[in-house]
Design brief:
It is built from 20 helices and 35 strands. The chain has 829 residues and is an alpha/beta fold. Strand 15 and strand 16 form a beta hairpin.
Length: 829
């Protein structure tokens, strides 16, 4: 194993005795401190420079018997030969440094620089090293104080937001004539005004049949909790929930009508889900009002265009507690979203208890220092070395907690779709089953091998996108299919206990790296037996076998786009009928045709466009924005821009930030056929969690981006969809201006009331004729600025009108509802 190649006899001796008498970490202190700083990025193409400054803060000389571990996003490492300290990848995003034979003793108080090069790039502070800890003869592991110097000259980093372009964009929207005065998100299909109004204050009555008792209960809770409206008899206004008189009127199962007239609010639908949607509209209409809540009389007819409107939450990389997941379910439901894609397994963790496979959580849900991963996984991302600490690296849902979450979501008409990542992205499961093998091999060999996911004799060499070399399930082992079916049946039993039916499981299927299975004797044997000629044949075999297993158990399969690509026609014929949803994600230009090709090929498609709906993409190129950027930047305007039935026009700018010719965006590309249109089932946002370290970070990346997703899932055909040129831009700007105003005046105050974190947009700045101009897209926000190079705070100068300015640099921030934006810099000279 790569981890054990380092000849550190003293270290291994300490690890062996660590839990047999060594002092606790609280009683010890690491003898060193670390400082990290960014070096040059132009020394060699494709590399940048990292430097750690190692300081001996002890009273004794620092000798050779030590190692330091840390986490950082995946990257290759290159060092000069004969370096006194070597830095290397342990696995994926987990690194270590240790002294070589060239290391000389470091005296107390002395420091040394450890400089090396890394692949890829580092253009945001959240990608810096973290989670440093020490292991040495005197005990450990011990945390090391790490000082991270922020990236120098942030305004000079490629991609740093252009303050003037932000100003111009904000000004364009401010000048856009109003499309309509007000609406909610997602906006309703049809609203006919009527004479009169209704005022809600203090008490309201609520009438409903038993079939809508759940929806009535939730409405009552929200009226009370959010608006202090008590449900009581003999109140001046009555809210009535009732079945639709003519069910043929319902466009689909979620259709509802809402009629407001004197002293009565009536919500009608053919289903409880439709009633729930109507109650969410009513609650949304109250958001920007003060008691007494005045509602104008009107008649609303409303329904979603797309039946699937989901959000994926990754709890493998960043653990989200059941309580916080319920909070997210509440928020999703309030915007009429109806699916939670539960990404509970990946390379870095397994987060649901599976009876009979205890190792999945005993080992696979914990990350910390280990020499062999027999009791927990290696640290990663958050970098914690304690597998028992309450960190985002550790934790899982017990069976009872998951059943409870299922019930909670179902009450709010949110369906939870679990994902078993396979055959790639499966390292946590693979390592857990290895631990099971080692636990039972001497006492019960059959039990040890029953659910093995890897083959000891496999010599395949590969590296995943995340730099893992051991994260793919061996698809030729019968035990791999026993494992998958065991997990499927246990999940189905949980749904049954929640009073639900598990109709689909997402099987992953993405990013299987080149080189897998080539060195596996079992795979080579299977290929020969089945007449296979390439490794993709093994992938096809895996997905068709699992689809059959699921069909046998009354389920259809779902998966990322790869599960529907490159197959024989025979396999396509099988999979089309067994697929519940193919989640198409890679819409980076050059790959974006896959979406419509898959729909045209007869598969049900969920649109997961990375450029519009990957919530883990950073809002912009500011180095203090957390997130990734391989698929571009995503903010609430970009999620709003998505067009389900015209995806090539869904991005209005390219990866470089330059405008796209929308009229030529689909030139030469696969168009959606009439049959293909029927296969566009819905939209989904993705929140992968490599850069997230707490629940506030989850919320920050979701809000306000989620608003565009919710709007486009409900209203898939916006007014500008079929327009072009100046008219298209004008209608788009009108709609975007209203959308941003609704977020500012309704949603942000609502999030504040709910205790939900959210992002404040950067202000725009412009210098003209020696005057400083400023604006912000958030209606009601303040802009404060400094001219002395310091970061603005709530007491800094308030910008109110163009002001003379001859300072070389201006730094500004926006402030709203107790939150503030990141600082933005504009050079005046």
């Amino acid at each position: 194993m790569k981890f054990l190649k380092l000849p550190l006899t003293g270290l291994l001796l300490c690890v062996m005795t660590l839990f047999a008498g060594c002092k606790s970490a609280k009683e010890q202190k690491a003898p060193v401190s670390l400082t990290w700083e960014m070096g040059a990025s132009d020394i060699e193409p494709g590399y940048y420079e990292n430097t750690f400054i190692l300081k001996n803060i002890s009273q004794e000389p620092l000798n050779k018997d030590w190692a330091i571990y840390y986490s950082q996003l995946p990257r290759g490492v290159k060092q000069v030969e004969n370096s006194p300290v070597k830095v290397e990848v342990v696995n994926g995003n987990f690194f270590r440094m240790f002294p070589t034979d060239n290391f000389t003793s470091l005296a107390p108080g002395d420091s040394m620089r450890i400089t090396f090069q890394c692949t890829y790039k580092l253009d945001r502070n959240s990608h810096a090293p973290e989670g440093t800890y020490w292991l040495g003869l005197e005990g450990g592991p011990l945390p090391i104080a790490l000082t991270v110097h922020p990236l120098p000259s942030p305004e000079k980093i490629e991609g740093y937001p252009d303050a003037t372009k932000i100003y111009e964009s904000n000004l364009r929207l401010a000048n856009a004539p109003a499309l309509k005065q007000s609406d909610i998100l997602p906006s309703v299909k049809k609203a006919i005004p009527a004479e009169g109004s209704v005022a809600l204050e203090g008490k309201v009555a609520l009438a409903y049949p038993n079939e809508f008792a759940n929806e009535a209960k939730l409405l009552k809770e929200n009226l009370s909790g959010l608006y202090a409206l008590e449900v009581a008899e003999n109140a001046p206004v009555t809210i009535v929930l009732k079945p639709l008189a003519d069910k043929k009127e319902a466009v689909n199962d979620e259709y509802y009508t809402l009629n407001i007239s004197n002293n009565q609010i009536e919500i009608s639908a053919a289903t409880s889900h439709g009633i729930f949607n109507g109650t969410q509209t009513l609650l949304a209409m109250l958001k920007d009002k003060q008691a007494p809540y005045q509602l104008e009389a009107m008649s609303i007819q409303d329904y979603p265009d797309l039946s699937y409107r989901g959000q994926m939450i990754d709890i493998a990389r960043d653990f989200t507690t059941p309580e916080n997941m319920k909070k997210l379910v509440d928020m999703f439901a309030s915007y009429k979203m109806n699916a939670l894609h539960f990404h509970f397994s990946d390379d870095e963790a397994w987060r649901i208890e599976i009876p009979g496979l205890e190792e999945l959580t005993a080992v696979g849900s914990r990350r910390g220092h280990t020499m062999d991963e027999s009791e927990n996984l290696y640290p990663c991302y958050d970098g914690g070395f304690d597998p028992n600490a309450a960190t985002v690296g550790n934790g899982y849902y017990s069976r009872a907690e998951f059943v409870d979450l299922l019930k909670y979501a179902a009450e709010r008409h949110v369906r939870i779709i679990p994902e078993i990542e396979s055959p790639g992205h499966a390292r946590a499961a693979i390592v857990s089953m290895k631990a099971r093998y080692n636990k039972y091999i001497k006492t019960d060999p059959a039990k040890a091998t029953e659910y093995m996911l890897s083959e000891p004799e496999d010599t395949s060499r590969y590296a995943s996108v995340q730099y893992y070399t051991d994260n793919v399930i061996n698809v030729a082992l019968p035990s791999s299919y026993r494992f998958m079916e065991k997990v499927m049946k246990e999940l189905a039993a949980m749904y049954k206990d929640a009073g639900l039916t598990l109709s689909t499981i997402h099987l992953g299927g993405d990013e299987v790296p080149h080189g897998v299975w080539l060195g596996s004797p079992k795979c080579q044997e299977l290929m020969k037996e089945k007449g296979m000629t390439k490794t993709h044949d093994l992938s096809e075999y895996f997905i068709t076998q699992l689809a059959n297993i699921m069909a046998k158990n009354g389920m259809k399969f779902s998966g990322w786009q790869e599960v529907a690509l490159g197959h024989t026609e025979q396999a396509h014929q099988q999979l089309r009928n067994q697929a519940a949803g193919v989640y198409c994600w890679n819409t980076v230009p050059g790959y974006d045709e896959v979406v419509y090709q898959t729909a045209n090929n007869g598969y049900p498609v969920i649109l997961c466009n990375v450029g519009n709906f990957y919530m883990d993409m950073a809002y912009n190129g500011h180095p203090d924005e957390r997130g990734l950027d391989w698929g571009g930047y995503v903010d609430e305007t970009i999620s709003f821009s998505m067009l389900p039935f015209s995806i090539y026009r869904s991005l209005r700018k390219n990866m470089a930030g330059d405008p796209i010719d929308l009229n030529a965006a689909d030139k030469g590309k696969t168009l959606l056929t009439e049959e293909g249109k029927k296969n566009i089932m819905g939209v989904q946002g993705q929140l992968f969690a490599e850069t997230i370290r707490n629940f506030e970070g989850v919320e920050y990346l979701l809000f306000p981006k989620l608003m565009g997703l919710a709007e486009r899932g409900w209203n898939a055909h916006p007014a500008w969809e079929t327009l072009s040129g100046t008219q298209e831009q004008q209608i788009f700007d009108q709609a975007l201006a209203l959308y941003e105003k609704e977020i500012s005046k309704k949603e942000m105050p609502y999030w504040t009331k709910k205790g939900t974190n959210f992002r404040i947009a950067l202000p725009g700045l412009m210098m003209k004729d020696g005057n400083l101009y400023a604006n912000v897209i958030i209606d009601g926000a303040e802009i404060r600025y400094t001219t002395d190079g310091t970061e603005p705070n709530a007491q800094s100068t308030l910008w109110e009108a163009p002001v003379k300015c001859d300072a070389p640099v201006v730094i500004a921030k926006a402030f709203y509802l107790g939150k503030e934006s990141l600082p933005i810099i504009i050079s005046v000279q």
